[in-house]
Records
---
Amino acid sequence: MIPEDHPRYRSLAVREHLARCAQEGIVTLEGLTAHGRGEAFDYLMGEETSPAALRAEQIAAALLLSAEHPVISVNGNTAALAAGLIAGLQEASGATVEVNLFHRTSARMAKITRLLEDQGVRVLTGVPERLLPLSHDRALCLRAGIGLADVVLVPLEDGDRCQALCAMGKTVITIDLNPLSRTARAADLTIVDELTRAVPAITQFCRELHGREVTTLSKGFDNREFLQEAIGDITRRLEHALD
Ligand code: PTJ
């Protein structure tokens, strides 16, 4: 039992929740280590949304709203941390939600789909095909989902799928606390923010943005600037860590 007055209560409660999700087979053990890496970068970012991340979240909303076939790709960690938040984003953006796993088994696919549906997400299902040139199972996706997508949101992603999706001409948005990751550098737009802060912010922008704002925001941004600002934020925090 974690006492609510513990200074790291939220972090410990999330870990406990993810450990339970791992026992249930929703999150993998590898997913727990991926979460630890994310936590470390979040610590370095001050565990808050930076102005640059907020701008990226606004652009992400514009990209989703201006897409013909927006898709949100959900893995085990994303479902465990943010199933209800994904429902809100789906409702606000009109995006299709597809489950896509690195450690893919039919049991995990079914459990994650059920968790999402229980939280109100409409999950696209069907017969998966190997539509991406990858040797692992992230290649498996649905023709009417990721196959058709022009804009794909891939939170907590692996670099090679991100590159493969970009090479197919899709606009790829990622949420990744590590601004140095291959995914962060390969994506068209990287939101360097924690998943459960980023998703509600994108949802809110989807509700607020209209017409010309959507068109203007979805053009003419430079992902390197967002990465540079995140690296600058981390560097400044480290320089003043012991002040
Ligand atoms: O459920 P599966 O089988 O599809 O597997 C999912 C994981 C996450 C295990 C898989 O995609 C993976 O191994 O991912 P990586 O390559 O570790 O990349 C995950 C990235 O997400 C890392 O750069 C982490 O820093 C980052 N990250 C982890 N937790 C969060 C995060 N970024 C934002 N918010 C988080 N909560």
---
Amino acid sequence: MSTDKKDIRKLNIEELEEYISSIGEKSFRARQIYEWLWKKNAHSFDDMTNLSKGFRAKLSEVFSIQNIKVDLIQKSDDGTIKNAVKLFDGNIVESVLIPTNSRTTACVSCQVGCSLNCEFCATAKLKRMRNLTAAEIVDQVAVIDRESREFFDRPLSNIVYMGMGEPMMNYNEVVKSIRMITSPEGLGMSPKRITVSTSGIPKMVKMLADEELRVKLAVSLHSAREEIRNRIMPFSTKFPLNDLLESLQYWYDKTKSRITFEYLIWKNINDTQADIDALVKYAKKVPSKINLIEYNPIDDGEFEQADPGVIEAYTEALEKNGIVVKVRRSRGKDIDAACGQLANKSFEE
Ligand code: SAH
């Protein structure tokens, strides 16, 4: 698709109205177009059947619609579906449909690659190529909604920003995508069903709290000890745990929404009593619950899942202190669709 035309979805409704009136069309046409773009996920101006042919032709002379294309669908034995999604410029990201008995969750990407450098994450090995636009994020949601209806006979129910990339490093487009997903002119989903996951950028957590979007927040903590977190998530040297905590307390004060800490436990990294004590102490300082996530090995050997006994010790200590804790198994491992495995592997060589 030609890239010299402006992507029409970069315009907000006011800008679209302005353009429409500048070419002498009635202003309600702007809303109609907006609905085609954001609610009905139209892929071409020809889909917009309530506009005249001439008008559609005029629009396509000036604008493009830079939709994503699903390049490859892989299905896991456990029902998980991974989409390799091609963007208009040829870049590829991955998004995942995760079915459970009652829900379908979409795990969406917000960057091509990732700007952070977590040592245990496959996505971090890809350098960040670019941020996704809000439209490209919404398109992933629309695709998974269609797949959920087709394969599971029900609409998409939940969205997690846990695919490739760091949402807080593509803040504006992520927020815009949430507004489009939740607004009546867009997909009209409840924000309570959306979780934004961050590696923990305090300033941005506060900013998101101020947006009043009513989404949920998850934080990839993995260690509550500064020196260990700095080693496994090197970017975090710039964001001390205390600053992060302060931003999470701010989040809770503003939103009254409990934070989910995501936490992986590795052999010889964070499997001692001191690690457990630090987590308990940290988590008690802000209303939160903990998801202990199973580690999915990526190629290098430094990281290894801790012994089951350690996971039990963590669980017991947290529960004893009144903190809700869940042990989560990863889905879609056989197709490299699980947490931390998204790395466009099907396109290597
Ligand atoms: N950048 C955001 C969004 C990605 S979410 C964030 O970090 O929160 C992806 C989740 O998978 C994060 O919690 C991440 O820490 C976790 N993860 C990364 N590598 C993993 C691996 N190899 N096994 C299991 N989880 C992993």
